[in-house]
Amino acid sequence: MERRFEGKVALVTGATTGIGQAAAARLAAEGAVVAVNQLPGQDPAATLERIAAGGGQGFPVVADMRDPGQVTAMVHEVADRAGRLDCVVSNAAINPLMRWDETTIEDFNALFETNVRGTWVVVTEGAKQMIAEGHGGAICCVSSISAHVGAPGQTAYCGTKGAISMLAKALGRDLGEHAIRVNAVEPGWVKTPMAAPLLDDPAVLRYYIERVALHRGGEPEELAAVIAYLLSDDASYVTSATLLADGGFIVNAEL
After folding, report:
1. Rounded mean pLDDT of the chain?
2. What pLDDT is attached to residue 254?
3. What is the rounded distance in angstroms from the CA atom of residue 13 to the CA atom of residue 178?
4. Cα distance between residue 118 and residue 76, in whole Å
5. Is the dihedral of CA 154, 157, 245, 59 positive or negative?
6. Which residues are catalytic?
7. CA-CA distance, 160 to 168, in Å (whole number)?
8. Per-residue pLDDT at 194
């Protein structure tokens, strides 16, 4: 495997499972020292074991994305412990399944505080740290095809992902003068613990298999490869972009 991140430090939020865990392992395998974000009380052992098994380096950092103070402190901790910050992957999110008319204000607030405000705080605080260090950097926000298409039981969640994709575009514009690139990846159906409850329904599973052009779900490692590309110098002229990684779902979504 290439060592595109040799000498660099990356922070990955929501890194204990799924896409976040795969991204942390991929970046570490390519040479980055990876700060593995976990919620208070979560166990980062599985991610750290994957990193170690691949010959990489990583360490855990604790922050609840709903708490701006914790997120800010986490960014500073990463820079203090590792000596710098080069890359941020904003991946942490929640997606409780609920009808629009069963979504309380408390539910709505929890979604936007975690998914949108959490993204805003970690990427802007990360950018400030990169600017202070003076070496540029790269940020990848994990959005979703839900930024483009509605899904039953995910109305408010779709709103958060639309916001994340647009924030990435706008921040890419603002941070370009500091040589910081900001992009978003928009996964479709990926085989993660978050997606499992939805796809336990055979009818839903059949719906996706029929409409994904590749007729299968994505693996977290496939999304990790896309994230690593966007953060790497291979994408040095790519910023304010949203990259669909949905196996060809949206093209068939109306069928």
Report:
1. 94
2. 57
3. 23
4. 16
5. negative
6. 144, 157, 161
7. 13
8. 77
Given a contact cutoff of 8 angstroms between Cβ atoms, the answer to whether 27 and 228 are in contact is yes
Q: What is the pTM of this model?
A: 0.95
Full 3-state SS string of 158-209: HHHHHHHHHHHHHHHHHHHHHCEEEEEEEECCECCCCCHHHHCCHHHHHHHH
For residue 163, give the amino acid letter: A
Paired tokens of 66:
């709903």
Q: How far apart (Å, rounded) are the C-alpha atoms in residues 150 and 111?
A: 16
pLDDT tens track for 48-70: 999 999 999 999 999 999 999 99
Both tokens assigned to 71: 């997120």
Strand order in the sheet with 137-142: 57-62, 33-38, 9-12, 87-90, 137-142, 180-187, 242-245
- How far the first Cα of the chain sits from its last, in Å, is 39
The Cα–Cα gap between 90 and 142 comes to 6
Among 75-89, 162-176, 192-206, the least confident range: 192-206
Q: Which of 155, 152, 156, 230 is nearest to 186 (CA)?
A: 230
141, 137, 101: which is closest to 117 by C-alpha? Answer: 141
Tokens found for residue 237? 């002229």
* Token pair for 78: 């990463």
d(CA 46, CA 66): 23
Q: What integer pLDDT is reported at residue 253 of this predicted model?
A: 65
Count other Cβ atoms within 10 Å, centred on residue 45.
12
